[in-house]
Fold this protein.
Amino acid sequence: MALPLTFAEVKAQVLLLSRPLGTCAAFHQAVNAGDYPALIAAAMAVSTVDINPLLWLLKSGGVTDALISDVDQTALNAAGIYATGSVSLLNPAGDITIIGTAAVTVTLTGVNAVNIWVGRNASLVLEVNDTAFAEIKTFDNSSISITVNDTGTLCFTAKDHTTTIITINDTSNSTVEVRNYTGLTLNANGTSFAKVTGFQNAAMAINTTGTPTIIQTAYQGANFSIPTT
């Protein structure tokens, strides 16, 4: 079994792989990084649109899953990045990125809010309570289970074959968008509200109990099952 790469070796590989990507200021920041926290900060400084910087780098080849596995996991966790193992978080501060083989459980209470990115086959279990808010974006065969209770709010976007189960209860409010063969099961209960939009062959099954309000729209080959009571 090969020994893990040293920091210097990881940095050298990151610079070599990311040089063609034109990340400019973030690349300069990486050149001057003297430790893992600084190198991770450089990666997360990459300017992207509608995708987490680390996930963009992974998709673009600027870093690899193998390199991520050699990075100090404590430094990754400190930056809100989880790549391996199982972890439970209560009201985390700052954005969360979940990749690789990580399995993360997040519980939100009170008025707390969080942005979470999930990709590269990782899994997320999320519970939103009270008047908390979560914005979730998922990619790359992720596995997602979300429960929204009370008057919690969810904004959820899924791409790339993500498997998703969302349960909305009480008077909660959710906006859900699924794409690219994503499979969604939405269990709507109480007087909850959800706006659900599907694109590009997404498959969406909606089950209702109580008197929830569901606004559903399908485009580009997406399809809904008929809601049942």
Remarks:
- The mean pLDDT is 94.
- The radius of gyration is 19 Å.
- Residues 7-76 form one domain.
